[in-house]
Amino acid sequence: MLRPGAVLAAAVTAVAYVAAVDPNEDGHYPTCPFLSVTGLQCPGCGSMRTVHALAHARIDDALGLNVLTVAAVPLLAFFWVRWALARAQDRPTRTKASHPALIWTLLGTILLFWLVRNLPFGSFLAA
């Protein structure tokens, strides 16, 4: 249980820091390099502000900043719980990340989100 505990501690620490140090204020965090160079938003743009909003229970704000990050939180929690339970029951963890179709679906979703949020009709996805 050492590794799942360490990952949980790191995640809680990171969320607590982002909750305490507002990413909406200038000078606290660096600007996204992709955004700085191209003027376009990457799939992760707005994620720190999304985590800050979620930490303060502002779900509507979080959805408006980066819906992909909001969707990833329960997915990551599910996989962490599955991993922690496997370790607690001394069951072997999977050696593969996941079925290739799921990995390709995730990659396709991220790329589609990246594309659509930078097009005029998808501006509602841009933070």
TrEMBL record:
Top-rank taxon: Bacteria
Coiled coil: none
Pfam families listed in its UniProt record: DUF2752
Membrane-spanning ranges: 63-85, 97-116
Signal peptide region: 1-19
InterPro entries from the UniProt entry: DUF2752
This protein's UniProt keywords: Membrane, Signal, Transmembrane, Transmembrane helix
Protein name as annotated: DUF2752 domain-containing protein
Species annotation: Actinomadura soli
